Amino acid sequence: MDTDFSFRAARFEDAETVFNLTKASISGLSGASYSRDQIANWMGDRTVAFYEDLIARGRMTVGLRDGKMVGFVDAEPGEVTRLFILPEAAGTGLGQRLLKIGIAEAKVGHEGPIRLEATINAEGFYRKHGFRSIKRGYFSHGLGGAPIEIVHMEL
Question: Are 45 and 143 a contacting pair, CB within 8 Å?
């Protein structure tokens, strides 16, 4: 397990890196669970501006290794909304550390279960960290692209 990570609040100028990291994570880690077409269209109509807006909310944390962003987590009260890591950071403990940060952020101003929508390939990761699967569904978030099968989970 790699422990040489640092964490900080996402900054406006991180938006393009967050956008590119999300695409790299999807294409590098989802191939066994989703079709090539689903992966190609996953980002829908998202742009860097979409991530600028998310960062402006002040709830996103980025994970760095040697000064390079290798993952991020975003949350709102009651929900971990996004957690993505670069494929080369998988299995290093980064995901677990980002998840803990996301859960803590999701608990701010919220009592009750913490929810998330997991991709099929990430369901086992979240189960390992205490989440339970509630039901299956589809992710679209209104930004175009083919529907992506997901698992609604809660802690």
Answer: yes
Q: What are the angstrom distances between the C-alpha of 25 and each of 72, 84, 110, 154? A: 11, 6, 29, 23
- The backbone torsions φ and ψ at residue 68, rounded to the nearest 5 degrees and listed phi first, read -105, 135
pLDDT tens, residue by residue, 32-61: 899 888 888 888 888 999 999 999 999 999
Taking a C-beta distance cutoff of 8 angstroms, is the pair 92, 100 a contact? Answer: no
Tell me the C-alpha distance between 117 and 140, whole Å: 11
- Residue identified by tokens 């996402």 is 10
Within 8 A by CB and 6+ apart from 105, the residues are: 59, 61, 73, 75, 80
What span, in angstroms and rounded, lies between the C-alpha atoms of 9 and 75? 12
The backbone torsions φ and ψ at residue 5, rounded to the nearest 5 degrees and listed phi first, read -110, 150
Going by CATH, does the domain composed of 6-114 fall within 1.10.3720.10?
A: no
Domain ranges of the chain: 6-114
pLDDT per position as a tens digit, 104-147? 999 999 999 999 999 999 999 999 999 999 999 987 555 556 67
CA-to-CA distance for 123 and 105, rounded, in angstroms?
Answer: 21
